[in-house]
Amino acid sequence: xxxxxxxxxxxxxxxxxxxxxxxxxxRLMPGNPAEVMIxxxxxxxxxQAINALEIAFGINVHQNxxxxxxxxxxxxxxxxxxxxxxxxxxxxxQVLSQAxxxxxxxxxxxxxxxxxxxxxxxxxxxxxxxxxxxxVIVPFSLFLNSMPYFWFALVIDYIFAFELGWFPLGGAYSSxxxxxxxxxxxxxxxxxxxxxxxxxxxxxGGWLLTMRNNMISxxxxxxxxxxxxxxxPDRVIExxxxxxxxxxxxxxxxxxxxxxxxxxxxxxxxxxxxPGVGYLLYQSVLNIDYPLMQAIFLFITVAVLTANFIADxxxxxxxxxxxxxxx
Amino acid sequence: MSFSTQEYGRGVNEMKYILVFMKNKKAxxxxxxLLFFVLVAIFAPYIAPYSPNYMGFTPLQSPSWEHLLGTTxxxxxxxxxxxxxxxxxxxxxxxxxxxxxxLSVIVGLTAGYFGGLVDDILVMxxxxxxxxxxxxxxxxLAAYITIKGIWTIVFVISITxxxxxxxxxxxxxxxxxxxxxxxxxxxxxxxxxHIIFADIFPNMLGLIVANFFGASIxxxxxxxxxxxxxxxxxxxxxxxxxxxxxQNNQAILFGLWQWMAVPGLLIALLxxxxxxxxxxxxxxxxPRLRKR
Lengths: 327, 292
Fold this sequence. Notes:
The complex is a heterodimer.
Chain A (H helix, E strand, L loop, with lengths): L1 H27 L4 H9 L5 H11 L7 H13 L14 H36 L4 H14 L3 H15 L17 H39 L2 H8 L4 H38 L5 H10 L3 H29 L1 H6 L2
Chain B lengths: L13 H10 L1 H18 L1 H4 L30 H37 L1 H16 L2 H11 L5 H11 L2 H14 L3 H9 L3 H9 L4 H24 L10 H10 L8 H29 L7
């Protein structure tokens, strides 16, 4: 119980830190950058919108910082992120909610596939760690893992979409004609293949190496030697003894690495013009749309935090030691 | 990434470790790649046939003997730009790696040594930075800082890249501080700064070096990503900005795939050289990972 309370406190503090960063950063920068943005959009936005933006970024506001901060927190809690200057007059929350399902779908599915694939390959390569295939796989995974994600996306986009023409260059579904039902689902899957492959290929290497190292450590533990001495079959030792124990650190790593992988996924979306959160973030950067940028940052942080929180709770069920130790 | 809690014995001279390190095939390969890039960076003016900023050639040429990688949309020689770009990409990677590692060392060692409330607060901050996704934070920071330049990039990447290392070093610190030689120093009445930096620091060198390699990979990749998005200084010559211009001028649609492929491949190679050395340190400090 103490463990769960600790996790809840951490969740709240981190969410608060992200909120506060959004508030402080524009005010901290020399020559409030939001002023440039507002100057650019003056005339295109109505006076109320300009006024709301000025309040949100602390321009021409003669209130004390604490009152501004309290107002800001109030606005955030009710989900009022203001209007997006890029998609004016649409609200930021509306713009964001259209992008979220795409990212969760693409990123969620491909991350789970990468985790499973990497973990299984990690188990296999640790078991035959001195074989030829194993000594090729390690440097190869290191290479995949140190490749710029967006560049890999560009390369496979060039080869499979531009040169061979097997897949579309970008987007999320066929825009020609209106698709319904299964045809639409099929189109969405078809368009997701290249961006999904990018995420899977670049993320698998990391899981492979983590799992391999954990496995090698566990395999030299006494209980594994004992299992061998008992004459248990290799398969049983490999999966029921070693892998079950080796997967725990991988699992904690999964939650921690989400923040890193999502960064890669954002860039992948940009390359494929995939209408998710990453592509939206790119558009907001190009148009210096600070309200949209802030909301996206907040959303991604809360999403990763939530995933972490769920992983922490699941961990309690996976590892009995956590339940008793209270750490 | 796995880090071991194995430690070095005291008083063994460092030269021996460097020799052992170099005997590891992965480490030697990684060092080789890094050395190659260092040489290219130093001798860039002699290797590059033209000035990286000269714009007088016929634009959008395919590779030829005069222009090994063709020319850009503004008539610059891509090969010369790639060679000169090594300087900035390597510099940002190494400097940022060093700054982030220094931050990790300071935070990790302070937290681990003092424990208690100091530890709680520092670990909390590190965890917050770990959970907040790096790239979106970097993008936000870079978007607010209106002065575009190399130091902006170094700053935003360092500030987001120290947390993992701090946590690893902290746990190592916790195991080291209960060792006899540290206790002896405490009894003698040495100051905490002396104990942390003169007694404990040398014993964590392996881990710190591994950490530096890890931070440098993060820096190289983040730099490329930032510049690709146009958040860097797009007039600077680095591998990331070459990719940015290639993308913006639709190099691929003109069939100039090498404009895109080569800088990306070099970034991946530089990243891999750090990754190989990192992995090798892992193997050396954790005897279980060594080949049997």
